[in-house]
Amino acid sequence: MRTGSEPVTARSPLRMRFWFSVWGLVWATAGTVAFALAGRTAWAVACGVLWLVVVVDMTLVVRHIRQGSHYQPGRDVPPYDPPRT
Question: Rounded to whole angstroms, how far apart are CA atoms 69 and 11?
Answer without folding.
Answer: 11
